[in-house]
Specification:
Chain lengths: 256, 349
C-alpha cells in the first residue's frame, strides 16, 4: 500500500449517519465501498444524487434538497432509494460530497496555464476571490456550505483532473497547464481549500501521485474502457478508494 | 483659380462648416489616413480617457486585444478594481509621452526595469510605475516584480499583435527620480509613496522635447512591428492639479495645447500615424462645454458617445460601412457528459 499523501488533507469525522452526495462520479466510490476496497466502518451509509447534466433539477428549499420534476425524482430514487427523494439534512450527521459537478480541472487547468504564461499573473488575493467564486458558483458546493452552516460535518472531494490521453483534448487553449508542477498545484489547492474552509467545508485535494503531465490524472486510474469511449472524466473504483483512503480517516480506523 | 480658397469645400469655411451647421450636425471632422476594420487587432493605452475608447470598440465588436486578461471566475467589479480589461495590458493610466516611452523601452528590452519600489503605511509594496494597480499593494518585492514582468510581456504581445495602436496623450507634467530619471505615474506622497524634495523632481517638458520623445516612441513601435499603425488622441480631461507655477486652468491649456500640437505634427510627418480629434469634439467652444459634468472636468457619457459616433462615421465616410462580424463559438460536447448515465447506472443498477 502506498504511503498516504500528506497534501491530500484529512477527512473530518464522518461517523454516524453519512450521506454520500454526488453525480455520476458516485459510481466509482460506491463500487469501491461495495467491493470493500475502502470502508467507513463507523458510518451508516446512504447516497443521494443525480447524474451531472440533471443536477440543475435539484433545488434547495428550507434547507432540504428536492428534485424539481417527476423525472428527476425518479432518477434520485435510483440513487437514494424509493421514498428518499427529498434530502433532509436532519436525517444525517455528516456529508461527503463526491464529484458533484465541482470539477477541479475547471479551476486548476486555467490557473496552471496562467502560472506558466509570461504575461499572466495574479495576486494571492485575486486567486482567493476566484476560488471563492468558483466554489459558490457550483450548486453542490452551495448545498454543502448550507449543510455545514447547519452544523453538519461536511467534506467535499471534487471531480478529479481529466485522464491523460483523451484529457488532452479537454484543456482547450490552456496548453501551458501541461507544465504544471507540484508547487503550482500547492498554491492553487491552498486557495481552494482556504475558501472552502471559510464555509466550514473540508475540501480534499487529489493525491499528487495520481497526477501526470502537469494537469492530468494517470491513465491507470481512468474508468474502464476509456480508450474506446474517450471518457476522460470518470475514474475507476480503485481511484476513488485511493483518494478516500489517502484522506486518512478510513485507513486510520481500519488500522485501529 | 483666383486663390487657394476658391476651390476649397464647405468644410474649409467656418460659416458653412460650423456656424450654419451647429454642434450636432458637424461632420467630416476627421479624415482618417487608414481604415480601422472590425477584424483589425486594436491595442489601447494612455490616460483615463483612453478607457472609453477601448470600451466603445469592444461594444461594437471591434477586435480590441487584451493581452493580460483577468483570471477566470473573477467578478466584473473585481476585474475593474484590479485594472484588468482596462487597457491592453495592466499599465494603469499612462499620462505622458515619456511614461509610454519608459514602458515600451522596458518591454522591448531597451532598458532594464527599475529596482525602486514604494512601501506604504501598511507595509505593502507599491510599483512607482503604477502604484494603484493592486488596490492593496503587493505582498513583497518579488510579487511586485513578477506582476510587472507579466505586464511587460503583455505590452510586447500587444505591440507584436496589434494592427492599430491607440494612444491617448493626457498630461505634460510629471514627477521623476532626480538621480535615476525614472518617471513616476503620480507624484510621490499623493496616493502612495513618500515625497522627498531632494529625490523627486518636477518636469514639464517643452513642446520641442515632447515632439522629440514622441517621435522616438513611434519609431520604436514601428521597429517592433513594421506593420503597426498608430492612432493618437489627446484627452480632453483637464488637469486635476498643477505643480507648475500658475493657475490650473492656464496650465491645462499649456499641457493640452502642447500635446495637441505634437500629436498633429507626428501625424503630419509619419505616414503610419494619425490623429483623431476627440479633444476638439469635447472641448471646442462650438460644443459650449455641454459634454462636461458640472465640475467642468469629467466627461459625461453623451460626450463619449459623440466622440465615438464621429470616429465610426468618419471611418465609414472615407472607407465605407463595415459589416459586423458574428462568430459563433463552437461548443464542445464532452465525452464525460455523454457517459454520465452509464457510470451512475453501473453502480446503482
Amino acid at each position: 500500500m502506498p504511503s498516504r499523501d500528506t497534501k491530500t488533507g484529512v477527512l473530518p469525522d464522518l461517523s454516524g449517519r453519512l450521506c454520500i452526495f454526488g453525480d455520476s462520479h458516485l459510481g466509482s466510490i460506491k463500487t469501491a465501498l461495495d467491493c470493500g476496497m475502502v470502508g467507513f466502518p463507523d458510518s451508516e451509509l446512504s447516497y443521494y444524487g443525480l447524474v451531472g447534466p440533471q443536477f440543475r433539477m435539484l433545488d434547495m428549499h428550507a434547507g432540504r434538497i428536492h428534485p424539481r420534476s417527476a423525472a428527476a425524482a425518479k432518477a434520485v430514487a435510483q440513487v437514494a432509494g424509493a421514498g428518499a427523494e427529498v434530502l433532509n439534512p436532519d436525517h444525517h450527521d455528516a456529508f461527503l460530497f463526491y464529484g458533484a459537478r465541482l470539477r477541479s480541472a475547471a479551476f486548476l487547468v486555467p490557473f496552471l496555464h496562467r502560472a506558466h504564461h509570461p504575461a499572466l499573473w495574479q495576486s494571492r488575493a485575486a486567486l482567493e476571490i476566484a476560488a471563492e467564486r468558483w466554489l459558490i458558483s457550483t450548486r453542490a458546493f452551495r448545498f454543502a456550505a448550507t449543510f455545514a452552516a447547519m452544523g453538519k460535518r461536511v467534506a467535499f472531494i471534487p471531480a478529479p483532473l481529466f485522464s491523460e490521453g483523451p484529457g488532452m483534448n479537454m484543456i482547450g487553449e490552456y496548453d501551458l497547464a501541461t507544465r504544471g508542477g507540484v508547487k503550482d498545484r500547492d498554491v492553487l489547492w491552498d486557495a481552494m481549500i482556504t475558501r472552502a474552509r471559510a464555509h466550514n467545508v473540508t475540501l480534499l485535494r487529489q493525491p499528487e501521485d495520481t497526477i501526470t503531465g502537469g494537469c492530468f490524472t494517470k491513465a491507470s486510474f481512468a474508468v474502464d474502457g476509456m480508450a474506446q469511449t474517450g471518457d476522460a472524466g470518470h475514474k475507476s473504483p480503485a481511484f476513488a478508494a485511493r483518494w478516500v483512503s489517502d484522506c486518512g480517516a478510513v485507513m486510520r480506523r481500519k488500522a485501529a | 483659380m483666383t486663390n487657394p480658397y476658391a476651390e476649397a469645400g464647405p468644410e474649409a469655411f467656418w460659416r458653412t462648416a460650423v456656424a450654419e451647421t451647429g454642434p450636432f450636425a458637424l461632420s467630416g471632422l476627421w479624415t482618417p489616413k487608414f481604415q480601422i476594420r472590425q477584424d483589425h487587432r486594436i491595442a489601447t493605452f494612455g490616460s483615463c480617457f483612453a478607457q472609453h475608447f477601448s470600451r466603445a470598440l469592444a461594444a461594437r465588436d471591434y477586435r480590441w486585444i487584451d493581452c493580460e486578461p483577468a483570471p477566470p471566475f473573477l467578478p466584473e467589479e473585481t476585474c475593474s478594481e484590479l485594472n484588468y480589461g482596462v487597457f491592453s495590458a495592466r499599465t494603469c493610466n499612462i499620462y505622458t509621452v515619456n511614461m509610454l516611452g519608459q514602458w515600451l523601452d522596458m518591454a522591448c528590452g531597451v532598458t532594464e526595469p527599475p529596482d525602486e519600489v514604494w512601501v506604504d503605511a501598511n507595509g505593502r509594496f507599491r510599483d512607482p510605475l503604477r502604484p494603484l494597480i493592486e488596490p492593496d499593494g503587493f505582498d513583497d518585492r518579488k510579487a511586485l516584480f513578477a506582476a510587472r514582468a507579466a505586464t511587460l510581456a503583455a505590452i510586447r504581445d500587444a505591440i507584436e499583435q496589434a494592427d492599430v495602436f491607440v494612444f491617448t496623450l493626457g498630461l505634460t507634467e510629471s514627477w521623476a527620480n532626480r538621480r535615476t530619471g525614472l518617471e513616476y505615474a503620480i507624484c510621490p506622497g499623493t496616493v502612495a509613496g513618500t515625497f522627498d524634495p531632494d529625490t523627486h523632481v518636477f518636469r514639464n517638458p517643452t513642446t520641442g522635447m515632447l515632439a522629440k520623445r514622441l517621435r522616438r516612441v513611434l519609431r520604436l513601435l514601428r521597429q517592433q512591428n513594421p506593420d503597426i499603425q498608430v492612432l493618437l488622441t489627446v484627452s480632453p480631461v483637464p488637469l486635476t492639479a498643477t505643480a507648475a507655477q500658475g493657475h490650473v486652468l492656464t496650465q491645462t491649456t499649456y499641457s493640452k495645447s502642447a500635446l495637441r500640437a505634437v500629436a498633429g505634427e507626428a501625424a503630419n510627418e509619419m505616414e503610419f500615424v494619425d490623429y483623431f480629434p476627440s479633444y476638439e469634439i469635447i472641448t471646442h467652444p462650438v460644443f459650449r462645454g455641454m459634454f462636461f459634468a458640472p465640475n467642468m472636468r469629467s466627461v459625461v457619457p453623451q460626450g463619449i458617445d459623440t466622440v465615438m459616433s464621429h470616429f465610426f462615421a468618419d471611418q465609414a465616410r472615407v472607407f465605407g460601412a463595415t459589416n459586423r462580424s458574428t462568430q459563433q463559438a463552437a461548443k464542445d460536447t464532452s465525452a464525460t457528459e455523454l457517459h454520465c448515465e452509464e457510470e451512475m447506472l453501473n453502480a446503482f443498477a
